[in-house]
Each structure stands twice: as structure tokens, then as C-alpha cells.
Automatic annotation (TrEMBL):
It holds the Pfam family Cytochrom_C. This is C-type cytochrome. It comes from the Bacteria. It comes from Devosia ginsengisoli. The keyword Transport applies. Residues 67-154, 157-239 form the Cytochrome c domain. Gene3D superfamilies: Cytochrome c-like domain (1.10.760.10). Keywords: Electron transport, Heme, Iron, Metal-binding, Transport. GO terms for molecular function: electron transfer activity; heme binding; metal ion binding. The keyword Iron applies.
């Protein structure tokens, strides 16, 4: 015990010193650029090591699946471009006045790796900078979409970036959902097949944070009730899209799986869908499959009106049945 006493005393003094350091005022919190470089090094090192620790054990999914880069590009153009710039335009002036300055990712992404560290940075953000975490911690699929896009960013010129972000569209909705809500990107839902009432309820759920999607929460949180009602009326056209020919999924659609307590999908989602329920015929197949997987993984926490019902329904569906249903309803 006597031999350990110096280590114990050293540990106590070290902890006391760390506790007193903030009280000394030596750790500058000034945003002026001419601060001691050692402080920048100290905090940057702590941030980098924190990101590395959070990335350990992260499984990297395939990042070349259809629509991933396009979906990430839409969020980047809507939220990130003002601070990080793009091949089309530099960051806005307010971002250049921040300390530390957000990195210009067109130049920096080539040195930013591996994928798991990029994922951890986007998902959790970086404290003491302007970099926020993803708006919801439940949508890793959206964060991986952003990773897939950022990996392509150094190779994009202005034209390629414009095509990827549908930059010619005159509003954020059209960039991802198509000019008339008819769908434009794999995995993004089409809107024109829904009713105004369903779209209005969905937008309000995203805005209020009761339905989980980092991209849609960012888009909807700036909307007023009047703007939501107008968008719902514009895009909710109730377009009829003939379903695909009969497949093995039809039995579930028409009759459900009584032995697994799975009701018929059409009892809520047919062409005369119940108020507040989405129509499915003609919806993007990748989007439908992803939503089924979210209900399976998150249950009612996936959020949105009636989420608790779907959380019960998907318990009786296996992966192959969910894929068959998505393909049956999809385009």
C-alpha cells in the first residue's frame, strides 16, 4: 500500500488540477482568430479522438445502392450548403465569420475518412463548433445516405452537382419528390397519390418531432400551418396508379395473415384509404420497404399518426414478405 501512495497522491493532484483549470480562466473561450494555437490543438485533438471512439464498432453498409447519394444530396443542398459550400457556390458570409470556420467540404472530403468516422461526425455533430448532430438519432439510414453523397462530392463539378441535387427545381419539395410530387429519386416517396389530409398530418408530425426523419424534420420545422395546408393541397392529388400484376403478395394485401394477426393491407391502404392513412399503390418500392423496416426496428417510436398500429402489423411479416409487398405496391 505504501508503494502505491505516490501514485494515489499524483492522481488526486491531477484530478484537482483538471478541476481548477477552468476556474483559472486560462482556457480561452474567445472566438477571435488570434488565440493560442495550443488551445486549438487541444480541443481539436479531443474532438478527433471522441469521433474515433464513437465510430468503433460501426458496421458500414453498402454505399452504392440506388438513390443513396441523391437522397443525401437533397439534404446537403437544403441544410449544409450554407456553411460548407458546394461546387456551385462558396459558403455564405456568416459561415466564414464563425470560429472555428466550417470546413469547405469540396476540398476537404478527399482527406476525410474512413466511412465510419464520417458517419459518427454527421450523426453526433461536434461540440464547440457550429456542427449539429443529425436531427434524430433513430435514422441511421439517412445518415448513411449523407455519407454516400459526401464521398462523391470531391469528384463533382457544378453541372454534376446540379443534376444530383435537382438544382433547377423551384422549391425543396420538388427537388426530391418531383415537380408534381410524382417521385424522382429511389427511396423517396411520391406525394401525388396521397390525400391532402394525409400529407398535412404527416408534415405536422415531422414539424412537431413526433415522426422521425432528419431530412423531413429539417424541411418541415420552418413551415407554418398555412404553408403546410397549401403544400398538402398542391401535392395531395389522389392520383390513381394501377398496382402491379398479381403476385404472392396479393394474399397479404387482400386477406392478410390471420394466423400471424396481420390484417389485409387494403383494409386501410387501398384506393379509398382511410382518413389519415397513406395510399400505397404506385408508391416508390424502396421507400415502402424502408418504412416497413423502420416500423420493424423502431416500433411505435418511428412516429407519425397510427404508428402504433403498423408497429404491431409488421411483427408478423418477415423480410421476404416485406420485400414482396413493397414490390407489389411499388412502381
Amino acid at each position: 500500500m505504501t508503494k502505491l501512495r505516490p501514485f494515489f497522491i499524483g492522481g488526486v493532484l491531477g484530478a484537482l488540477g483538471l478541476g481548477l483549470l477552468p476556474l483559472s480562466g486560462l482556457l480561452s473561450s474567445s472566438a477571435e482568430p488570434s488565440q493560442p494555437p495550443v488551445l486549438d490543438w487541444y480541443f481539436n485533438l479531443a474532438a478527433q479522438q471522441s469521433i474515433t471512439l464513437r465510430s468503433l464498432g460501426v458496421d458500414v453498409p453498402p454505399l452504392d445502392r440506388p438513390g443513396m447519394a441523391e437522397r443525401g444530396a437533397g439534404h446537403y443542398e437544403m441544410v449544409c450548403v450554407t456553411c460548407h459550400g458546394s461546387p456551385v457556390a462558396p459558403p455564405e458570409q456568416f459561415a466564414r465569420n464563425l470560429s472555428p470556420q466550417p470546413p469547405q467540404l469540396v476540398q476537404r472530403m478527399a482527406q476525410w475518412h474512413p466511412e465510419a468516422r464520417i458517419f459518427a461526425t454527421i450523426k453526433h455533430g461536434i461540440r464547440r463548433t457550429a456542427m449539429p448532430g443529425w436531427p434524430t438519432q433513430m435514422r441511421d439510414d439517412e445518415v448513411w445516405d449523407m455519407v454516400a453523397f459526401l464521398l462523391t462530392l470531391p469528384e463533382l463539378d457544378a453541372d454534376a452537382y446540379g443534376r444530383l441535387t435537382s438544382g433547377t427545381a423551384d422549391n425543396h419539395c420538388a427537388r426530391c419528390h418531383g415537380e408534381n410530387g410524382e417521385g424522382a429519386i429511389p427511396g423517396i416517396p411520391r406525394l401525388d397519390i396521397q390525400s391532402p389530409a394525409y400529407l398535412e398530418a404527416a408534415l405536422k408530425a415531422f414539424r412537431d418531432g413526433t415522426r422521425q426523419s432528419g431530412t423531413m424534420m429539417a424541411a418541415a420545422r420552418v413551415l407554418t400551418d398555412a404553408q403546410i395546408e397549401e403544400l398538402a393541397q398542391d401535392y395531395g392529388r389522389g392520383t390513381n396508379v394501377p398496382a402491379a400484376s398479381e403476385t404472392t403478395a396479393e394474399a397479404i394485401v387482400r386477406h392478410g395473415l390471420p394466423d400471424r394477426d396481420v390484417p389485409a393491407c387494403d383494409s386501410c391502404h387501398d384506393d379509398n384509404a382511410r382518413l389519415g392513412y397513406p395510399r400505397l399503390a404506385g408508391q416508390d418500392a424502396d421507400y415502402l420497404l424502408n418504412q416497413l423496416k423502420l416500423f420493424k426496428a423502431l416500433g411505435a417510436e418511428r412516429g407519425g399518426p397510427n404508428a402504433h398500429i403498423m408497429a404491431q402489423v409488421v411483427r408478423g411479416l418477415d423480410e421476404a414478405q416485406m420485400e414482396a409487398l413493397a414490390e407489389w405496391y411499388g412502381r
